[in-house]
Automatic annotation (TrEMBL):
Protein name: Glutamate--tRNA ligase
Molecular function as annotated in GO: ATP binding; glutamate-tRNA ligase activity; tRNA binding
Domain Glutamyl/glutaminyl-tRNA synthetase class Ib catalytic positions: 3-305
The species this protein was found in: Lutibaculum baratangense AMV1
Reaction(s) the record says it catalyses: tRNA(Glu) + L-glutamate + ATP = L-glutamyl-tRNA(Glu) + AMP + diphosphate
Length: 442
């Protein structure tokens, strides 16, 4: 079975770029009858917050993503300890005592010598007496993973054949001086324990993959498949970040965007597919092809999101809109929704047209003689979508007016606005009594 994971750190709000990764994983798994695991990478106790963890779950649910399993790394520390002991026992995890300043000086020296700025593995040559002396000085070791210095290859589901020369990399630190874990070891241990079959993530992790494949193998496991998708960037060209809160899913939701519009843009932007609104995740899943994603970063344009949002609202049925209309006090029934949806940027903008119906509206401009005639010619109720045509036809015949000269004074008198829903559908919502009062208003 296909099993994927989305692994955010609860240190800030998810943004549209995070949504891209989550959705690609979800669509890939569900399109294959698989499982989606939400893994909260919360081992950074200084920055992780429970409110962010709860917000992540809420944001995913808003997009339509319900995890099959939620895992917290903070509850799995014993498993990471066990893996670290195994690696130490196998000689693949070794202690190092250099301070950050010492490491920086060595890095600059190697650069000056024309050598790659990688760690020189001094920690490997330390004998027991030296380690004891360093410990007496109050130094505590950080622990590095001994790379095999080889060409690591994999067939990337987004990028095709890939490789990383681990010879050109420093042995990565897996455990800090205080005994806490960096990202790499917990991530690999979790992927093994959870049976993750595919790791789908941003292209900024490509180099990490060479290290992680070696770590999978060192722990006696077959690595999963990997896919590294292109990243979304802000319209300004800047990288997106949870820390800044820019383009967060929470802010997009509060701004009134449809989750399907956000999902459509997050998935289709920077792909070979047309960026058009898809009504649900099932529609996106049928079109997902990781190999059709571009290799270049994709620039997020909020104007494009606006267009997708309007497109979805124009096709939205009343059943879908009803609860949200009710939440803002604008549920005036299906006829109202069908009349106004073509003029909305957000569902909540229906309030504008509720207020137009319930009034009051601004007095119409001076055109009293014509409006008086219009009031006298009002047909009796009941009214339907044909009433507007028959009424204006009679006015045209009686006054000789046509086009804008006929319709604009009526629109201004009835709605107080130059633009809006088609009056053939809007007129019955106003009703004869209200229409007559507005036409005769001085």
């Amino acid at each position: 079975m296909t099993v994927v994971r989305f692994a955010p750190s609860p240190t800030g709000l998810l943004h549209i770029g995070n949504a891209r990764t989550a959705l690609l994983n979800w669509l890939f798994a569900k399109g294959r009858g698989g499982r989606f695991v939400l893994r909260l990478d919360d081992t950074d106790q200084a920055r992780s917050r429970e409110e962010y963890a709860e917000q992540i779950i809420e944001d995913l649910a808003w997009l339509g993503i319900e995890p099959d399993l939620v895992v917290r790394q903070s509850e799995r520390l014993d498993r990471y300890d066990e893996a670290a002991r195994r690696l130490r026992g196998d000689g693949r995890l070794y202690g190092c005592y250099e301070t950050p300043d010492e490491l920086e000086r060595r890095r600059k020296l190697r650069l000056a010598q024309g050598l790659p700025p990688v760690y020189d593995r001094s920690g490997l040559s330390l004998g027991p007496e030296e380690r004891e002396r360093l410990a007496e000085e109050g130094r505590r070791p950080h622990w590095r993973f001994l790379l095999r210095e080889r060409r690591v290859e994999w067939d990337d589901l987004c990028r095709g054949p890939q490789h990383v020369e681990t010879t050109a990399l420093s042995d990565p630190v897996l455990v800090r001086e205080d005994g806490t874990y960096l990202y790499t070891l917990p991530s690999v241990v979790d992927d093994i324990d959870l049976g993750i079959t595919h790791v789908i993530r941003g292209e900024d992790h490509v180099t990490n993959t060479g290290v992680q494949i070696e770590l999978f193998e060192a722990l006696g496991s077959v690595p999963p498949g990997f896919a590294h998708h292109n990243l979304l960037i802000a319209g300004s060209g800047e990288a997106l970040s949870k820390r800044t809160g820019a383009l967060s899913l929470k802010s997009l939701r509060e701004a009134g965007y449809e989750p399907a519009a956000v999902a459509s843009l997050a998935v289709l932007l920077g792909s070979a597919e047309a960026v058009e609104a898809r009504p649900d995740l099932a529609s996106l899943a049928r079109e997902l092809d990781l190999m059709r994603l571009s290799r270049a970063p994709a620039r997020f344009d909020e104007a494009e999101l606006e267009g997708l949002n309007r497109s979805l609202i124009r096709e939205m049925d009343y059943k879908t809109a009803k609860a949200r209309l009710a939440s803002v006090g604008a549920d005036l029934g299906e006829r109202f929704w069908l009349a106004v949806r073509g003029n909305l940027d957000r569902v909540r903008d229906a309030i504008i047209w509720r207020d137009v119906i319930e009034g009051p509206v601004e007095p119409p401009p001076p055109d009293r003689e014509f409006l008086d005639v219009a009031a006298r010619e009002l047909p009796p109720e009941p009214w339907d979508d044909g009433t507007w045509s028959s009424w204006t036809g009679a006015l045209k015949a009686q006054t000789g007016r046509k086009g804008k000269d006929l319709f604009m004074p009526l629109r201004l008198a009835l709605t107080g606005r130059e633009h809006g829903p088609e009056l053939r559908a809007f007129l019955p919502l106003l009703g004869r009594e209200r229409v007559e009062a507005r036409l005769r208003k001085r």
